[in-house]
Amino acid sequence: MNKEKLETITGAVPVLVMPFDNDGIIDEVSLHHQIDFCLAAGAKGIAFGIGSESDMLTDAERIQVWTLAAKHIDGQRPLVAATSHASREGTIALTCLAGECGVDCAMVNPQPFQREKLVRLFCDLSQRVELPLMIQDVGQNASVDVLVQAAQQAGRVVALKIESPDAPDKIGQVVAELQARKLTAVGRQITVLGGANGNHLPEELGRGSVGTIPFPAIIDAYQMVCNCFQTGNTAGGQEIYLQCIVPLLRAAAAGGGGNRSIWMHKAILQRAGILRTAYCRMDIAPVPDWIMKNVWQHLAEADLLISRRLT
User: Fold this and answer.
1) Beta 211-212 vs 157-163: how paired, if at all?
2) How far apart are CA 2 and CA 92, in angstroms?
3) What is the pTM of this model?
4) Cβ-proximal residues to 151 (8 Å cutoff; 6+ apart), any chain
5) Which residues in the chain belong to E strands, given as ranges?
6) How many helices, marked H, and strands, marked E, lie in the chain?
7) Buried/exposed code over 53-86 (b: 16+ C-beta within 10 A; e: otherwise)
8) Residue of 189 and 2 predicted with greater confidence
9) How far apart are CA 212 and CA 193, in angstroms?
10) Where is 252: in which H helix or E strand?
11) 66-100: pLDDT as tens digits
């Protein structure tokens, strides 16, 4: 995909879970299968992020999976990769590396940089790296003013992923500010998406988000909700959200929340024959059997691609 003509990032863009064999080695065949499954389910892009255990990979492994994914997707959808590092220099280096591997957009969590340092980080990236950028706002990284200022001044910012605790309200404020300053973004269309696995997806879409970046197993459900809101069918979107997505969110929360979702989605994809194992490099305890029993029952009754793979 031409980096100067990146397809606008909208809709449901799954964060892949990283497939490993039982020895913790990256399983390329399972990665291919997962990408194919997500594309077949209607994903509007493919992403590597925190949920991909990116921080647990070596640089050589990042090169391996980013290159493999870029070649396999072959321009069908935008490929987004998290390139954050504790240092400015490390973030620039990882973002350059992502571009060399064929990634279409770098998702950067600016922590620990704040205020003017955050703005300067994205300006530096825009000057040093020929790659579109997504600002990832996790856990109140920055105020609305700072986020909009970074989007304005850094010419390669094309999207913001907002997943702070007050995400729906913040999304509405950011969207309003971007629209008010549209003359400063001539030639660019900056989109705003939600995250946090879609915990507040209807509210985010109602406040101006154009998509979400969740885990992959039920990505078609997320896309259906996005489609409904895009066409003004908010009631239909709410119904799909409550029927298809909320039961899985509740199961993850009942299982302990946090990184347990990574294991749960790996277990679902393994049972569907997409991944060979549910091995995690993070120290994640499996979700209790009684919760997974509820998950299997829910998916058996849902009209989703993963449901048909589980039968």
Assistant:
1) unpaired
2) 20
3) 0.94
4) 122, 135, 157, 160, 178, 185, 190
5) 11-12, 46-48, 79-82, 105-108, 133-138, 157-163, 191-194, 211-212
6) 13, 8
7) bbeebeeeebebbbebbbebbeeebbbbbbbbbe
8) 189
9) 5
10) helix 246-254
11) 999 999 999 999 999 999 998 999 999 999 999 99
